[in-house]
Design a protein that fits this description.
The protein is built from 19 helices and 16 strands. The structure holds iron/sulfur cluster.
Amino acid sequence: MKLSKTNYLIYRECGKNAWVKMHKPDVYYSYPLTEFEEGIIETGNEVDILARDLFKEGVLVEGRYDFALTKELIEKKTPVIYQPAFETDKYQIASDILVWNEKTEKYDVYEVKASNSGDDKKKKSKNELYTFDLAFQYIVLKNAGVPVGQLYLVRLNPEYVRRGDLDLHQLFTKEDFTDRVLETEELVKNEMHVAYDFLTQEKEPSGNCSCITKGRNSHCTTFPYSNPDVPQYSVHDISRIGLSKRKLEELVDSGILNILDVPDDLKLSDAQKNQIISAKTGKTMVDESGIKEFLDQLQYPLAFFDYETYACAIPRYDGYSPYNQIPFQFSVHILKEPNGELIHKEFIYTEKENPDDTMIKALQELLPGNGSIVSWHKSFEMGRNDDLAKRNPEHKKFLNNLNDRMVDLEDIFKAQFYVHPDFKGKTSIKYALPALVPELSYKDLEIRNGGNASNTWNQIVTDGYSKEDTEKQKKNLLEYCKLDTFAMVKIFEHLRDLVK
Ligand code: SF4
């Protein structure tokens, strides 16, 4: 059993998780990847392939871990090799790109990452991860007898704005990580030995894993396997409990794992207390005056509005930067007056060109010119309007006006005016809808979440479906987005009737 770079990097996050992945893949992979996770992998592959054009005419080592072909290519001093694989007695790697440097008579290593550098804090932690990634490669390459020169990190440049054809030398940044790698080499070498011994032991590491004192968002998919004594709805699900590590430790140390057993006198925030009270009593908590005050600020006509978008790593159209969201669809339900007729309008763009222009025209045509625009988690919709305005400054006034009228229905739940035991501390519409309007559900739809919608649209515009399937999927997308806004209407009506 050899230790790969991927498993070493997982080990650095969590040894137990890496062990389960290597020895019990059926447990590790027992949860299918989400659409979002699949999207990340697909994006990574797409970016890897595109980055190869930075170093033209290379030889691709096809298949996974073709050590023999790689050896042959290295011996021939092949100028550019994509995806070469190397192994030692304990370790194995597949690099992204090796480039022979005539001057130094060594191979320079280029590691491609599909990430933006991000803000300074994120950049720092990502740089650390990438340094360990490159150091692992460096050590294996050296031990495999490859003359290694400089080590570079290639990633997407968030400042790049597409104008015309993609300019790969502007789209990607190349950063020299050699010094960082050399500084870390000894540390990584030692860590690799420890990781190898730990991960190749046949005996499973015993006991609960360390996430027992972390909030649910930090848990990996193997948490239930390693912690069978923790109930499904546990103290780890208390809203934002991950930020109060000491409190969670206190509960776990006292053997309190079930949310129903949390003592009444434990100091918690109002939202946390409400979540626990509703879980214990099974009752809904309603602040009628808070809800009424919120609803009273709404101005008719009400437009219940929702965008669907696709975040594209490689800018597809002019004016777009890496990972900018492409708004491709919206749905709006319009209620002109209280108890008036409900009108539905929708728009979807499935051509290959930039949807911005047509999207803005549709917004101008289909949205009312006044009244409140009601959304769920409005920062997302407002962010898309801001992006559209940035790319299309001639429509800034119109788009700013939409944002000035935007109201967030989720605020009612965030403000704790309505707490249902089934919310389990969450305020997303996917929790609110089944609790408040159980007769309405996403379950029967072909597309059930935003990630699925994004990927479906991308498949349509990149010719991933037959003509017939494209029409079907278009219909599925329209149905999904329609339900998003109809769900808001129904939740709104439920709340309105409650405080009548
Ligand atoms: S739940 Fe946390 S500690 Fe446990 S295996 Fe997963 S990542 Fe590791």
